[in-house]
Amino acid sequence: MTAPSPGSPRGRTTIRRWIWLGLRLSVGSGRGGLLRTALMSSGAALGVLLVLASLATVSVAAAQHGRAEARTAVRDDTRTSPSPLRMHEIGDGIDGRILRRTAVIGADPTSPRPPGIAALPRPGEIVVSPALRDLITTDPRAAGRFPQRIIGTVGPAGLLAPDELLAYVGAEPVPVPPDAVGFYEHRPVTGFGAPLVYALGAQSAGPDVFTPARLLAIAFGLFVLVPFGVFLATCARLSASTRDRRIAALRLLGVSARQATLVNAVETGVVTAGGALLGLLGYLLLTPLSENWRIGRLHWYAADVAVPAPVTAAVLALAVGYAVAIGTFATRPARLNPLAVRRDAPAGRPRLWRLGPLVAGLVGAVLAGLLGRTGPGLPEGLLFAGSLLLTGLALPLALPTLGYALAALLERLPGTPVWLELAAARLRHAPGVAPRLVAALTVIVYVVGLGSLGVGLIANDRDLVPTEYPPGASKDARLYQLLGPAPAPDGPLRAVAGVQILDLRSVPATVGGVPGNLLVGDCADLTGLYRLDPGESCRDGAVYRLDDGFSFRSVPQPGTEVVTEGGTTIPVPDQTLHLNHRFDLGISGALLVTRQAPVAAALSATPDPWPLLVATDLSTADRAAQVLAAHAPAAYLSGDFDLRQGFDADLLVTLLVTGLVVSFLLGIGAFAAAAVDRTMERRRQNATLAVVGTSPGTVAGSELGFGALPLVIGLVLASLATVTVASVLAGLLDVGVGVVLDRVAPTLWLAAGALLAGLVLIAVPAWLTQRITAEQLRRP
Question: What is the pTM of this model?
Fold first, then answer.
């Protein structure tokens, strides 16, 4: 008798019957089935929620990027536009928070306005963001920068995030020197919506969000997607033995392999789809609340985290499809050989080839380290990166072989406890079950170990990547340059305690017939920029030879003539000053002519339009920035204010750490779900042992040993692999092995904590599920 065609009425009725059976099985059978359904659906819900949250970072980056471009001025590069509007964007900061100040010059009622601005400010007026308005009323540092009258507030359309500090400050027009007419800030502003100019690093004055942040968001998603794949695969194979026996029973009753596949696919798909929809609902409920959340310094509007509907649909479809594919592939033996599955025949011995990829990965990492000791290049880097990936993928593959070998060794040892012998026998009977239980946790420990090394490198760990200062350089004093189209208020700045404005002027000259220069200034100006050798001092009214230590610049010999462009001749004196850099910037020449020296009056020294400013510390620099912003809104200090903006190390470390935490939580979640499900699945076998007189302690001990043996092997392998990689990395970075191992030491503690958590998650359910019921003894 032939089977009905799927397209015939009878065939369609048969398919509906098997789909209906799959739907009935999806709600579970008994308390154990309900628990498995709950674990599987909750796993899908958690995974979909985290995946959508990681994809939301892309939406946030895109939304903020669009608003940043919308407020970026469009300038007339030909300088032929009659627009009187000029805008100068300035990067500033208050207490580590980025403050963007835009000086507005020449605004009139016809001038274009950036988004979120009702009217541009005139001199003495200011338009601020809501966060800056609140800060001005509470923080004297903000109030000191902006004494102008507030005439408006920037709306959400003109802000990257609710907490952004942004100000548009009206400034007086200033004469533009002929050699500065072509400068960017002096070009007419004709509108808004120009593309962003991207930059990397803490000194970027551009917006915080630009295209590299999107790439980082995708990389952050990988921290979730990979563990989610392991998590969902674990959930899809919950109660694997029970489901395999059920599929085998259907096959032995005459159900075709295709029909059994349909039943299993419907069951898995319905449960996963229900969990995925719960995750989507949770995400939609949390979205409006997220506006008050932040990750590091990142903040957003609630509307920014909306994931496009096609992307959401794709996530749901892929989650369900992936779970169905895993379930279908894993039940293939039950469909093809149902008799062996039904009889619970022992699995074959794992082959030794499973150890090959792990050995190859570690050997490749060591080889990359050996080849790169003389100077690592691209081939060594690719070999090292490939070895890291291969090692991580090979860890779960090696667990069945090593677990089987350890179980065989324990069975041969004399005096092995009964509970341990029972655990070893179970491990040899099904060598692939327990490793599947601990694979996720093993891989996560390895990933977290490597991630901690990556965080150390990206964060510019000074022991891993030392920062070299010039000899004698100052680590407290700060050097800045006064920039901007407006002249700096010299008097108010000099009145700030701890601030020194350097006035060293360079005069072109020939030294012994060779073109060069000399410096004109006070001794205080020179010693503000340099330190002198011990025992040396500078006296105003004298002339000195200067030795700045550069080998390419010879120190003129005494008696050599120095002739300036104006024809003034200065003989080189005997007295010499040896200069040691206080900062990584300096101004030097062959001679220092102090202003009180008689020959100084004959020299034509042009003042520097952008003088240098030295502050004794960061707080002093902040006070100078306040004075400068209040008196000359278009001027600013260029230098390091310890602000982090753009795609810098702090942002990258924040997201890396967040991704690692999420990955570890998913790994723990996968292990917990599998451990609880395994305990429930083993209740029938454990009930049989209890009936024949096995003590509850022995039964619980066997369950603990069955999960603990591969867990110990996996965590030890992950720790050894991490230590091996760390040692190789020490060689590549040319630093001590102990320094790098210190960075991965927390990973070893993490592995110990994971072992303890795993033992608790195995032992507690095994002990609490000792009660025997008639259902457990009756069901096959």
Answer: 0.66
